[in-house]
Amino acid sequence: MSGQQALRAALVETLRGDAALTALIGPGRVHDGAPRATPAPFVDLGPMETQLLTGDPAEGERHTLDLTVISRTPARGETTAAVAAMRDALAGLGAHLAGHRLVHVSDPVMRSERLRSGRGWRGRLRVTVVTEPAN
Q1: Which pairing describes strands 42-52 and 61-71: parallel, antiparallel, or unpaired?
Q2: Among 31, 1, 26, CA closest to 13
Q3: Is-above-0.85 flag for pTM?
Q4: SS3 (DSSP) at 72
Q5: Which terminus, N or C, of the chain has the lesser number of Cβ atoms within 10 Å?
Protein backbone atom coordinates (compact mmCIF):
# COMPACT_ATOMS: atom_id res chain seq x y z
CA MET A 1 0.00 0.00 0.00
CA SER A 2 1.33 3.43 -0.88
CA GLY A 3 2.00 6.01 1.80
CA GLN A 4 -0.92 8.10 0.56
CA GLN A 5 -3.34 5.15 0.66
CA ALA A 6 -2.14 4.17 4.13
CA LEU A 7 -2.51 7.75 5.37
CA ARG A 8 -6.04 8.14 3.96
CA ALA A 9 -7.12 4.86 5.59
CA ALA A 10 -5.48 5.86 8.89
CA LEU A 11 -7.20 9.25 8.84
CA VAL A 12 -10.64 7.70 8.33
CA GLU A 13 -10.04 5.13 11.08
CA THR A 14 -8.63 7.72 13.48
CA LEU A 15 -11.43 10.22 12.96
CA ARG A 16 -14.20 7.62 13.05
CA GLY A 17 -12.79 6.28 16.32
CA ASP A 18 -12.50 9.67 18.02
CA ALA A 19 -15.15 10.01 20.72
CA ALA A 20 -15.11 13.82 20.83
CA LEU A 21 -15.60 14.16 17.06
CA THR A 22 -18.29 11.46 17.01
CA ALA A 23 -20.14 13.25 19.82
CA LEU A 24 -20.22 16.41 17.68
CA ILE A 25 -21.15 15.01 14.26
CA GLY A 26 -22.57 11.55 15.00
CA PRO A 27 -21.31 8.05 14.19
CA GLY A 28 -20.43 7.01 10.64
CA ARG A 29 -20.08 10.56 9.35
CA VAL A 30 -16.42 10.52 8.32
CA HIS A 31 -15.93 9.82 4.61
CA ASP A 32 -13.15 9.54 2.08
CA GLY A 33 -15.33 10.95 -0.68
CA ALA A 34 -18.69 11.76 0.86
CA PRO A 35 -21.63 10.39 -1.14
CA ARG A 36 -23.99 12.92 -2.72
CA ALA A 37 -26.75 14.13 -0.44
CA THR A 38 -24.86 13.10 2.70
CA PRO A 39 -26.70 14.65 5.65
CA ALA A 40 -24.76 17.28 7.60
CA PRO A 41 -22.79 17.45 9.71
CA PHE A 42 -20.11 15.26 8.15
CA VAL A 43 -16.34 15.13 7.61
CA ASP A 44 -14.77 14.46 4.24
CA LEU A 45 -11.14 13.91 3.37
CA GLY A 46 -10.35 16.53 0.78
CA PRO A 47 -7.49 16.89 -1.66
CA MET A 48 -4.13 15.36 -0.78
CA GLU A 49 -0.84 16.21 -2.44
CA THR A 50 2.09 13.85 -1.95
CA GLN A 51 5.76 14.59 -2.62
CA LEU A 52 8.75 12.30 -2.27
CA LEU A 53 11.27 13.65 0.21
CA THR A 54 14.32 12.59 -1.80
CA GLY A 55 13.05 11.05 -5.03
CA ASP A 56 12.93 7.58 -3.46
CA PRO A 57 9.68 6.38 -1.83
CA ALA A 58 11.72 4.33 0.66
CA GLU A 59 13.05 7.61 2.10
CA GLY A 60 9.61 8.96 2.93
CA GLU A 61 6.86 11.21 1.65
CA ARG A 62 5.34 14.57 2.55
CA HIS A 63 1.54 14.70 2.32
CA THR A 64 -0.37 17.97 2.42
CA LEU A 65 -4.12 17.56 2.86
CA ASP A 66 -7.37 19.21 3.79
CA LEU A 67 -9.94 17.68 6.11
CA THR A 68 -13.35 19.30 5.64
CA VAL A 69 -16.42 19.43 7.86
CA ILE A 70 -19.80 20.59 6.56
CA SER A 71 -22.45 21.87 8.96
CA ARG A 72 -25.92 23.27 8.30
CA THR A 73 -26.27 25.12 11.59
CA PRO A 74 -26.94 28.86 11.42
CA ALA A 75 -23.92 29.67 13.62
CA ARG A 76 -20.27 28.73 13.21
CA GLY A 77 -19.88 26.94 16.58
CA GLU A 78 -20.49 23.33 15.45
CA THR A 79 -18.02 23.76 12.61
CA THR A 80 -15.21 25.21 14.70
CA ALA A 81 -15.71 22.60 17.43
CA ALA A 82 -15.52 19.80 14.85
CA VAL A 83 -12.36 21.23 13.28
CA ALA A 84 -10.74 21.47 16.73
CA ALA A 85 -11.77 17.85 17.47
CA MET A 86 -10.20 16.71 14.19
CA ARG A 87 -7.00 18.56 15.08
CA ASP A 88 -6.89 16.90 18.49
CA ALA A 89 -7.62 13.46 17.01
CA LEU A 90 -4.48 13.66 14.86
CA ALA A 91 -2.46 12.82 17.99
CA GLY A 92 -3.60 9.19 17.55
CA LEU A 93 -2.91 8.97 13.83
CA GLY A 94 0.36 7.01 14.03
CA ALA A 95 -1.33 4.01 15.68
CA HIS A 96 -3.48 3.44 12.57
CA LEU A 97 -0.84 3.90 9.84
CA ALA A 98 -0.44 0.39 8.35
CA GLY A 99 2.96 -0.36 6.83
CA HIS A 100 4.27 3.15 7.42
CA ARG A 101 5.61 5.25 10.29
CA LEU A 102 4.45 8.71 11.18
CA VAL A 103 7.52 10.96 11.18
CA HIS A 104 5.97 14.40 11.66
CA VAL A 105 2.63 16.23 11.72
CA SER A 106 2.80 19.98 11.09
CA ASP A 107 0.90 22.53 13.10
CA PRO A 108 -2.52 22.30 11.48
CA VAL A 109 -4.17 25.42 10.03
CA MET A 110 -7.87 25.76 10.87
CA ARG A 111 -10.34 27.76 8.79
CA SER A 112 -14.11 28.21 8.73
CA GLU A 113 -16.30 29.94 6.17
CA ARG A 114 -19.96 30.28 5.30
CA LEU A 115 -21.17 28.05 2.46
CA ARG A 116 -21.96 29.89 -0.78
CA SER A 117 -25.62 28.99 -0.37
CA GLY A 118 -25.59 30.79 2.98
CA ARG A 119 -27.17 27.72 4.60
CA GLY A 120 -24.32 26.44 6.73
CA TRP A 121 -20.58 26.39 7.26
CA ARG A 122 -17.47 24.67 5.94
CA GLY A 123 -14.52 24.09 8.22
CA ARG A 124 -11.11 23.08 6.93
CA LEU A 125 -8.11 21.65 8.66
CA ARG A 126 -4.98 21.81 6.51
CA VAL A 127 -2.12 19.66 7.70
CA THR A 128 1.19 18.34 6.40
CA VAL A 129 2.17 14.81 7.41
CA VAL A 130 5.53 13.13 6.78
CA THR A 131 5.57 9.33 6.59
CA GLU A 132 8.12 6.67 5.81
CA PRO A 133 7.80 2.96 5.09
CA ALA A 134 7.93 0.80 8.20
CA ASN A 135 10.53 -1.63 6.75
Answers
A1: antiparallel
A2: 31
A3: yes
A4: coil
A5: C
